[in-house]
Amino acid sequence: MVQYLVIDAPFLHKPSNRKVMAALNLKAPNCARFVGGCVRDAILGRKSTDIDIATWLLP
After folding, report:
1. 28 and 21 in contact (C-beta within 8 Å)?
2. Which of 22, 25, 26, 57 lies 20 to 30 angstroms, CA to CA, from 15?
3. Alpha carbon distance, N-terminus to C-terminus of the chain
4. d(Cα 31, Cα 49) in Å, to the nearest integer?
5. Which pLDDT tens digit goes with each residue over 35-51?
6. pLDDT (mean) for 25-36
7. With contact defined as beta carbons under 8 Å apart, do 54 and 35 qualify?
């Protein structure tokens, strides 16, 4: 059985981050994900100072 961890962190609600994710996902739905330290910090309940986004889209 697959289990998923659902997090709610301030960076997910920041308008500029939402705008970037919306633009990326407009090209290909669900192609972009938050990764790295911001995810780790959210899991640990810490404030994150930067975000990383991974996508398979080409620049």
Report:
1. no
2. 57
3. 36
4. 23
5. 999 999 999 999 988 99
6. 91
7. yes
